[in-house]
Amino acid sequence: MVKFASGITKESYVDIEGIVIVPDEVCKRATQQVDIEVRKIYCVGRSANVLPFSIEDASRSDAEIEKALEVGEQLVHVNQDTRLNHRVVDLRTQAKQAIFSVESEVLKLFRQFLWNEDFREINTPKLTTGTSEGGAAVFTLDYKKQPACLAQSPQLHKQMAVCGDFGRVFVTGPVFRAEDSYTHRHLCEFTGLDVEMRIKKDYSEVMDLVDRLFVEMFDKLNERCKQELEAINKQYPFKPLKYKPKRLTFEQGIKMLKDAGFEVDPLGDLNTEMERTLGKLVEEKYGTEFFILHRYPLAVRPFYTMPCSDNKAYSNAFDVFLRGEEIISGGQRVHSPELLESRAKECGINIKTISTYIDSFRYGAPRHGGFGAGLERVVMLFLNLDNIRMTPMFPRYPGRLTP
Ligand code: ATP
């Protein structure tokens, strides 16, 4: 039996029959809590003779590799592409197991919070006729001889659910963006966490919900995922997130950036560097890495965004930032079909492709708003991982369509 066992390759799956023995105190400290005296062993799924990389090599932190180098020892570094090419092996490391437990917990907490607040989970079609967010970042396809697109977001349909008298809805599901996403935070397919709700007075109701939902989520992640966070920290060290909610208007944000020496267009969008810097400034001034920037310039928001009533250059829209990067976009939506149509035209959208959406507002529509977050971004930034490609189990970005 020993000869048979020693011939079983590493990472094979085995069934073992044996007797569990609790070792004496000395051995216990040195090894595991129990030993198994093997009586029978079966090889259920034999692994190949050569693995693409060992679990030990794939579990090493960069710091460990650098430390070894200092004393002249070269340890194997498994790069991201090799890991993704052989994802099933990479997923076996403790850190990867933990990342996907955290991700699963984020989904669970998102759902539980919203169910408790009387939201209904709905599903929206992924095969659509046109873009919802504008721009060319859409995958086109042939839908039985009719031109079609993969949904860029559930935006239009979740709003139509509200028009159908569903007062509070949420959607979790795949979202497709054809942008040339070569950055550390863009994917071609990600999981959208979308909310849409009737509002009584103004869009601060949506921001209040974001604050409560995400603070509860972060609290519970820290509480329930202690072991997972430790495992991730070992390979990918990170500082715990500071998430006391803070709200600033876009104008206040611009002023902070100007004071820090940036030249900023007051009615333009912020670029990645500005967002990062603003994140640092807010952390220094208010001691938090979680904040909402609201009253964005209308010109940089999608066509369905409600303009501010007191100044049409601005909008009732917001972005939410975590460690200086966007995790959520949201705001109040236009519910007048006439305004919606003219805004869509101004934004260069082909009205024909969204006519059924615009028509939904012709039979009475409530004041409403909502937001969309990206699951992979939330997980990446909560854990301070340096690349979003680590957070989908099987990521899709330009050039990668397998496994
Ligand atoms: P960005 O400015 O970062 O490109 P966006 O403004 O295009 O994002 P939205 O269309 O507002 O993003 O989408 C809402 C949320 O969905 C974002 O805050 C982010 O969490 C997530 N998201 C958007 N695009 C991507 C992407 N390509 N890959 C992963 N997540 C994304």
Helix content: 25-40%
Q: Assign the CATH class of the largest domain.
A: Alpha Beta
From the alpha-carbon coordinates, what is the Rg to the nearest angstrom? 25 Å
Low-confidence stretches: none
What is the overall shape? elongated
CATH superfamily of the largest domain: Bira Bifunctional Protein, Domain 2
Bound molecules: adenosine-5'-triphosphate
Strand content: 15-25%
* CATH fold-type name of the largest domain: BirA Bifunctional Protein, domain 2
In total, the number of strands is 13
- What is the CA–CA distance across the termini? 37 Å
The CATH architecture of the largest domain = 2-Layer Sandwich
Q: What can you tell me about this protein's structure?
A:
This protein is α+β, with helices and mostly antiparallel strands and 403 residues long. It folds into three domains: 2-45, no CATH class; 56-90, no CATH class; 94-390, 2-Layer Sandwich (BirA Bifunctional Protein, domain 2), CATH 3.30.930. It contains 15 helices and 13 strands. The strands form three sheets. Strands 3-7-8-13-12-11-10-9 form an eight-stranded mixed β-sheet, sandwiched between helices. It has a three-stranded antiparallel β-sheet with strand order 4-6-5, with no helix packed on it. β5 (140-143) and β6 (146-150) form a beta hairpin. α7 (94-116) packs across α10 (226-235). The radius of gyration is 25 Å and the shape is elongated. The two termini are 37 Å apart. Bound molecules: adenosine-5'-triphosphate. Adenosine-5'-triphosphate binds next to β12, β13 and α15.
